[in-house]
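Field reference: sequence -> structure
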Amino acid sequence: MRFVLDASVVVAALRPNEPHHQAARARVVRLLTGEDSALVPSLFVVETSGAFARLGFERAKIVRIVDALTNYPHKVVTVGPRSARAARAIAFQGKLRGPDALYIWLARRSGAPLCTIDPEMAARGAAFCEVIGP
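Structure field:
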């Protein structure tokens, strides 16, 4: 299955105390084994790296994890000026945070479902794209 992967799922997969840890971990394992593939906006690289650094992960481990989730068969989609304006329109209409609007924009543009554990993002994003949990 191909879907847009929200950073919240990856962070939960590496935090055993997260409520959605087991489901998120299972989803990430499917991504790492090639059973599933992910689309992510370029922001994902920065967002997940920063989250893992704040959690105390070593730089080498962060790079390994993020690279594994952004190299083939997964795809990083860059956001240029036109895409940013399209995401901005989604942010306005859905009253979304900027990063959330980028993930939802990508799901809408690609036709792939958005995989997230963020309840607000899921509720507001459902007006624009299919939303699935891990």
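Note: The helical segments are 7-13, 21-32, 43-54, 59-70, 81-94, 98-110, 119-125.
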